[in-house]
Design brief:
Elements (H helix, E strand, L loop, with lengths): L7 H4 L3 H7 L4 E6 L2 E13 L27 E6 L2 E7 L8 E11 L1 H8 L10 H8 L17 E4 L8 E4 L13 E4 L8
Antiparallel strand pairs: 1-2, 1-6, 2-5, 2-8, 3-4, 4-5, 7-8
Helix pairs in contact: 3-4
């Protein structure tokens, strides 16, 4: 039985709620080289104009335009030569996105190791590491994650219980008082 793809209504909600609810879900990328998958273990929520760390805080640009689109789209951009994978949230017209910071590798481990040249927690414990391991680039920007035909999708995860931790976001110079980073406590793939 195939895992259920998360529907658009999952994403078209409060960004912080989506960031927390993505924990435990499975990110899948089908490529010509093979399929990789990983359980999402760390996320960060980025809001609209009121969020100084958000790509949407100043004005609409070609880069951030997708944040005002519908929820459930891949938002991939480059920071310090690293691709960062985000998912758009909220309903059309309200900017929001969730950065997927880390995954626990589940499938395609050999391909991930080949792409990264490392193994263990260094494989996918960070936003640039996970995109490199899973082969996610700007070519996937704008893909509809709710489309079963898409090469990139997020599906329901297992039913295991886990404890959710939260903190301020990592690496932002100006943050909100609200804690918008969510992670699965005690998971070795959570970034440090």
């Amino acid at each position: 039985m195939k895992a259920k793809i998360l529907p658009r209504c999952f994403y078209e909600r409060d960004t912080a709620r989506v960031a927390q609810d993505l924990l435990g879900k499975v990110l899948i990328h089908d490529t010509p080289e093979g399929t990789t998958s990983g359980k999402i273990v760390e996320t960060e929520a980025y809001l609209g104009r009121e969020d100084p760390a958000s790509r949407a805080s100043r004005k609409r640009t070609r880069l951030n335009e997708i944040m005002w689109s519908r929820g459930g789209l891949a938002f991939v951009y480059v920071v310090h030569a690293q691709n960062l994978f985000n998912v758009t949230t909220e309903e059309e017209g309200t900017p929001g996105a969730v950065l997927v910071r880390a995954v626990e590798p589940l499938g395609g481990l050999e391909l991930m190791r080949e792409r990264r040249g490392v193994s263990g927690r260094e494989l996918t414990s960070g936003p640039g590491r996970l995109t490199q391991a899973m082969g996610i680039t700007r070519a996937q920007h704008g893909l509809d994650l709710t489309d079963p035909r898409s090469e990139l999708k997020i599906v329901e995860g297992g039913s295991e219980e886990f404890e959710i931790g939260k903190s301020h976001r990592i690496g932002v110079s100006r943050d909100l008082e609200r804690e918008l980073r969510f992670f699965i406590r005690k998971n070795p793939f959570v970034s440090r």
